[in-house]
Structure formats: C-alpha cells, structure tokens
Amino acid sequence: MPPKLSVVVCTFNRGKSLKKCLKSLCQQTFSNFEVVIVDGGSQDNTNQVVNRFSQKLKIRLFVDRRPELSQVRDRGWREARGQYVAWIDDDVIASLYWAQEIINTLNDSTHKNIAGVSGPTIINQKLLANRDVFSFYHARGIKKILGEFWNWFFLEGGKFAVGQITKCGAWTPGSNFSQSLKIRKLQDVDYLEACNMTLRRNLIEKVGGFDYGYTGVGEWSELDLAIRVKKLGYRLVFNPKARVNHDISREGVFKRRTHSRQRMENFFRFYFRHIFKFRLDYIFKFSCYLLFLNSYWGYKAISTQNINWLGGWVGTATGFLKVLEKNYENRR
After folding, report:
1. Phi and psi dihedrals of 324, rounded to 5?
2. What is d(CA 69, CA 253) in angstroms, rounded to the nearest whole number?
3. CB–CB of 209/125 below 8 Å?
4. I need a surface site. Which of 92, 126, 171, 248 has the fewest CB within 10 A?
C-alpha cells in the first residue's frame, strides 16, 4: 500500500543538519509517510546518517548531482509515491504534529479546493540577526527608519503577515516569527513556504512540476510551482499548527547564495509571470524595489569584499532582457 504522504528532502553536505531533520520525522504522530532524500553528491557523513535512520523511517535515497536545485527538487516529487508531496529543507526540524496537521488539512472535506498547505517556519532570534532581510526588525537609529520605510513601502505594512507577495515583488516573512503561531485558523495565502510546502501530487503532475528555467539555487521556483497549481482554481492555505523550526545552515547550497545573477534572473522570471500588472503603482514600486536590490548587491560586495555579489547588477539587465525576449516570442 503506497504512503499517504511523501516527504522530499534535498540535501548536500549537511549531515549534521540532516540528522536533526530526520530525528524530528521519527517522532511524528502520523506514520503513514515515506521520506524521499535527493542527495546532490555529498562528501560528508550524509550517507551514514541516511543509513542510520533507514532503520526507523521508510527512506528512499537518490543521488542527483545536477547543479540546478529546481531540477533536484523536481526529481523528488517524480520519485514520490504518496498522494501528497511535502518539501522540507534538510535544516528544518518538524514539530511533533506537523505531518498530522498536513493530512488533516488536505483531508478535511469542510475546506474545499485546498491544493496545498504551509505553516510556520520559525527562525530563532540569533539566526534572524544574521540575515540581512531581518536586520531592520530590531534595529535602531537610521537603520530603524529604513526598516519602517521597508515595511510601509515594500511590504505594504505586512512585515508580520504570512504568505503575501506585494506589488513590488517582495514576500512577507511573517511565518518566520513566533507571531504566526497566534493565528487560530486556516488562512488563505499567495504562496507556500519553500522549506515547508505540501501539494497534491496529481496537481503537481497536471502543471508539469518545477520549471527548469529557474537556475542556480532555484529561488522562486517553489513559489512558482505553488502559484501555477493555485491558478488551476484551487486554494493555498497556511495552517499555524503545521510548524517547523528552520535552523538555517550555512553549509551546502547556502554557499551558492552569492550567485546573485541567477537569483535576479529568477526573480524577473517569477515577477513578470505572476505578479506584474501594467499599472503605474506596480511599475513604480517594482522600479524602486530594483533600485533597493541593486544597492544591496553593491553593499554586499563591499562589506564582504566578494565581487560575485555584483552579479546581481548583471542579472538585473539579463533578467529584463529575457522578459522582453519572452514577450516578443509570445507576440509572434
């Protein structure tokens, strides 16, 4: 009998984090699930970790050395046998009732047309402080003023909102904070969290899976998949009880985050496919956001003395050109 749920974990050289992730899956109250691990060719102790937990979990391991994470994630659902497919990161720790809450949400006939579910992806305060995107939240002085502007203008007042994408293309990070645990019922959202995302397998198949046009670390490819499923006429929801803790690792694919050209090209691909409207407010906010992002790439290049961050400037140009090329092809 096939499992009800397939949990896909893509990993690369994160044996220590993967151990904690798999340990949390061993403790789930719901047990009718398999774990599909797609390993990018790890050179650390990943194989030993997988072998150890294979005695407790229904694990199937696949090695896929392709550099594009969107393709590796896509491999996961294609190998999955469950009715529902969940993706979690290898540095995620699932709460005790995480799997059960996913099943409850997707099985509940009183909530119609639900295609996918996500939940809180809590990041502890110490790790939050290390991430630039959250540095505004507890800042002082001029940085606090910039943070207030960031929230008001780019996030449209939604710095603690969950699952929203604003006119400029920014995503609201509310699910990363403990405030999201105070939500009392299912909430419709624009997208699902990449590290805590579950979709119905038949709908993933219907839209063709991941778009391989998202390159590098595949940022925005997960959101793209969820939104394409949503556009079939279904709902995406946030369940505050389907919680994971995201203990962000700086190993593995994290080191490729300096590949900012690909990240910008991915952003352009996503934004003009799903968000952009030919209206003055969208054009103005998007233009301002591009200015902000490119200032950020310059800041990172200077502060880290790593010129690779300036690839974001190149990605802005090439991403825009790809959008123009796509529009030209569609009009032919």
Report:
1. -60, -40
2. 9
3. no
4. 126
Angstrom distance (rounded) from CA 182 to CA 229: 28
Give the bridge partners for 11, in sequence order.
39
- The amino acid occupying position 24 is S
Which pLDDT value is given to residue 257? 60
CA–CA gap between residue 119 and residue 93 (Å, rounded): 13
- Cα gap 89→248, rounded to integer Å: 9
Which uninterrupted H or E stretch holds 115? strand 114-118
Within 93-193, where are the H helices? 98-107, 125-129, 141-149
Closest CA to 130 of 98, 176, 182: 176
Of 253, 255, 260, 250, nearest to 299 by C-alpha is 260
Work out the pLDDT band at 122, boundaries 50, 70, 90: very high
88-92, 126-130, 167-171, 188-192 — which is least confidently predicted?
A: 126-130
Average pLDDT, rounded, for the chain:
92
- Pick one of 3.90.550.10, 3.40.50.1110, 3.90.79.10, 3.30.530.20 as the CATH number of 5-123+177-249: 3.90.550.10
Q: Distance between alpha carbon 222 and the CA centroid of its chain, in Å? A: 6
Task: Provide the total of helices (H) and of strands (E) in the chain, helices listed first.
Answer: 11, 13
φ/ψ of residue 83, rounded to 5? -70, -35
Helical axes 69-79 vs 221-230, angle rounded to 10°: 50
- Say whether 264 sits in a helix, a strand or coil: helix
